Amino acid sequence: MALAREGAAHFAIDAAASLLTVQAFASGIVAVIAHSPKFAMRDMSGEIRFNRDAMENSSVRTSIRLGSLEIMDEVSTMDRREIERVMFDEVLEKSRYPTADFRSSRVAATKISESVYRAQIAGDLNLHGVTRGLTFESQVVVGEDTLRAQGAFSLTQTDFGLKIASIANGALKLKDELKFGFFLVARRKE
Q1: Which domains, ranges and CATH numbers included, belong to the chain?
Q2: Is residue 107 within 8 Å of residue 117, measured between CB atoms?
C-alpha cells in the first residue's frame, strides 16, 4: 500500500468502519461483584490531514455525537434503560452538550516501517462544555486511499465537570477514571 506521491493527503473519518470504546470501572465494596460497563460510540465525523514530508503540518479534527453511546455488555432491558438514563441525562447531559470535539494542536510521528507510523497527538478536547488539553499516542497505517489509526487514552470525568455515575440508588458507583480505545478508518478525500 503506497502513499500517494505528494506528501499531504486529506482523509474523512468513516463512521461506519470506526469505533470509540469507553471502559468505566465499578468502585467501592460492590466492585468485587459489580459490573464495570463498557460503552461504544460510532456516530463520529472528522478529518485527518496527513503530511508525510512535514509531520508538524498533520492534524486531526473529530466530533462524536454523545447520543450514540451504547452499552456493549449484556445487561437486562431494565438495567440497560437505567444505565442509559443515568449516562445520557445525569452524566453527559446530552441534550445540553450533544457532542465531544477534539482538535489537534501538534502532531509528531516516527516512521516505523513502510506506511506505518507511531504518532503522538496533542490537542484540545471539548466535553461537557469544558475544554482541556489531551495528549495520546496512536499507531497509524497510511495507504493511498485509506488511513487507519488506533490507540488509547484515559481521562477523569471530574476534570470535565461530569457527575460520577451512580446507578440503582447507589448500588453501583463508578470510578472517576475512564479508559478510551479508538480505531479510526478514514477515506481519502478528492
Answers
A1: 8-188 (2.40.128.110)
A2: no
Helix (H) or strand (E) holding 82: helix 77-85
E strand residue ranges, the chain? 8-13, 19-23, 38-41, 44-51, 59-65, 70-71, 99-113, 116-127, 130-142, 146-156, 166-167, 172-173, 177-188
User: Which residues are registered as beta bridge partners of 122?
Assistant: 106, 135
Note the Cα 112 to chain centre separation in Å.
Answer: 24
**What confidence tens digit (pLDDT) does each residue in 79-91 have?**
778 778 888 888 8
138/182 Cα distance (integer angstroms): 9
- CA–CA distance, 142 with 1 (Å, rounded to integer): 8
Measuring CA to CA, which residue among 125, 130, 65 is closest to residue 95?
65
Amino acid residing at 158? T
Query: Regarding beta strands 70-71 and 59-65, do their DSSP bridges make them parallel or antiparallel, or are they unpaired?
Result: unpaired
CA 67 to chain centre: 14
Global pTM exceeds 0.85: yes
User: What is residue 74's DSSP assignment?
Assistant: -
CB neighbour list of residue 83: distance below 8 Å, 6 or more residues apart: 37, 71, 75, 167
Grid cell in block for residue 56: 508538524
Q: What is the pLDDT of residues 3-32, one digit of tens each?
A: 444 578 999 999 999 999 999 887 755 544
